[in-house]
Amino acid sequence: MDHFKEVPRKFMPPKGSDEYIILFALRECQCSTKKLLLLLGKDPRSALQRLKNADYGYWNIPNTSRRGGNYRLDPRHLSGDSALDDQARNERRIELLSIQKDNDLHAVKRQPRSTERWKDAQEKKVNQLELSLLETKQPA
User: Fold this and answer.
1) List of residues 6+ apart from 57 with CB closer than 8 A
2) pLDDT, tens digit (0-9, with 9 covering 90-100), for 94-135
3) 107, 72 in Cβ contact below 8 A?
4) What tens digit of pLDDT does each residue of 7-22 get?
5) Model pTM above 0.90
6) Nearest 5 degrees, angle CA 46-CA 67-CA 57?
7) Which residues contact 61 (CB under 8 A, 6 or more apart)?
């Protein structure tokens, strides 16, 4: 029996994979990280990330808890309506791109400080090498 007949094949992970197990569980109800951990026997974060990014077509799986760790599958994916499914996937893609944009902006802001710290470390390394060379050249 195909439990995901309404979902385009190109978005489905292989049966038996961690991603498939997560989708199967989320199809029925919300799941906590703990429940997914018990189902998979390992941390579900990597599989959730693959489902939620381009690997499997941006499944919209929001975390419904303020403290984190309670997931639900957007019901539009299982509606059988391709327009609703596309809408849910596009919302997730926009969310992911927004997160990436924000991370990139923070990285740009951190770059001058990182460069300065790297230069300081390089300078210390050169000074240590020079000192080491001076110590080895002194007559005994």
Assistant:
1) 8, 10, 11, 89
2) 999 999 999 998 888 888 888 899 898 888 888 887 777 777
3) no
4) 889 999 999 999 999 9
5) no
6) 35
7) 26, 48, 51, 52, 71, 72, 73, 74, 92
Residues 72 and 26 sit within 8 Å (Cβ to Cβ): yes
Question: With b meaning 16 or more CB within 10 Å and e meaning fewer, what string describes 56-74?
Answer: bbbbbbeeeeeeeebbebb
Cα–Cα distance measured from residue 46 to residue 111, given in angstroms and rounded to the nearest whole number: 27
H-helix or E-strand spanning residue 70: strand 70-71
Task: Return d(Cα 81, Cα 130) in angstroms, integer.
Answer: 70
Q: Which residues pair with 70 in a beta bridge?
A: 32
The count of C-alpha atoms lying within 13 angstroms of the C-alpha of 75, restricted to the half-sphere facing its C-beta, is 3
Record the tokens describing residue 22, joined without a space. 């997560």
35 Cβ partners below 8 Å, 6+ apart?
A: 25
The total number of residues written for the chain in this structure: 140
- R_g (Cα) of the chain, nearest Å: 24
